[in-house]
Design goal:
Length: about 280
């Protein structure tokens, strides 16, 4: 990786980390709203003992960093360590900032939006801020089809429930659970966008002509699958083609113009990685 690209990666991770850290003291901590994960545990400990939130986050992350180093490798750890330490320092350095609002509902909603935006930027460049972010990443190795936002939603739910016991208030936990969903959506919005790419399956007796058109006009690679009609027992070629979302209607138009009887299926593809698409980040 060249120096400019690496510098850009660290710049975006830094911006995301600052947004994530500011969400604590501007919205969450002084309203006793635990956001889940290690940071949620740190806020509960701070509430009970006044121990600094940032320092507690670092201490709780040590065993997770060791485990992730074994399973995920050095670069991920380096980036995540940078984001975790920086966020912890900013959280403690801004501890005396007055919160934007004392309304717990507004604090929970806007704190989670700010946190989700920050985490989305951090995740998008291959890092985490530690805690449940790392745990979610580790679990995602076993369940790669689950988005990072949903994974964090599941991991953090238990800790938020425990915070209700510590704060002796079911309301703060209910606020946090609602806004945890908001945060997961903001994370997925940044990571995966508002729309998905498309995947086309086309069954036709004119697959060779359609394939040629796809390659020449859409500049898309095509994979030919071989199937058999369950009723007719006839062997058929099936075109499978990954498309940019704006190419989907053109692909259907090409197939129908060549073979009006073509069976065309176009579905949303949540994640497509490889040549012609984005490289895998998470």
């Amino acid at each position: 990786m060249n120096i400019r690209r690496r510098a850009w990666k660290y710049f975006i991770i830094t911006v995301g980390t600052v947004l994530y850290a500011l969400s604590f003291n501007l919205f969450l901590t002084q309203n006793n709203i635990a956001p889940g994960g290690v940071s949620g545990i740190a806020i509960v400990v701070h509430y009970l003992t006044s121990f600094p939130v940032g320092v507690m986050i670092i201490l709780l992350n040590i065993p997770l960093f060791i485990l992730s180093f074994i399973l995920l490798g050095g670069e991920f750890i380096l980036l995540s360590f940078y984001a975790t330490v920086l966020s912890s320092v900013i959280i403690d350095a801004t501890a005396r900032l007055a919160p934007f609002t004392k309304d717990p509902i507004l604090a929970a909603i806007y704190g989670r939006i700010l946190m989700g935006a920050g985490l989305g930027l951090v995740f998008n460049y291959g890092a985490t801020t530690g805690g449940s972010d790392i745990l979610s990443r580790l679990i995602k190795l076993r369940f790669p089809h689950v988005s990072m936002g949903r994974m964090m939603l599941l991991v953090d739910f238990v800790i938020i429930s425990l915070s209700a016991i510590a704060f002796r208030s079911i309301n703060t936990a209910l606020y946090a659970i609602i806004t945890l969903y908001i945060s997961s959506k903001v994370i997925d919005l940044i990571l995966y966008g508002t729309e998905y790419e498309k995947l086309a399956y086309i069954i036709s007796d004119h697959c060779d002509e359609i394939t040629e058109k796809f390659q020449n006009e859409l500049e898309r690679g095509v994979t030919l699958l071989y199937g058999e009609g369950a009723y007719t027992k006839q062997h058929k070629k099936v075109i499978m083609c990954a498309l940019k979302r704006q190419q989907a209607s053109k692909a259907a138009e090409i197939a129908s113009s060549i073979d009006p009887e073509a069976f065309v299926i176009i579905v949303a593809a949540h994640e497509i990685y490889g040549d012609g698409f984005e490289r895998r980040k998470i």
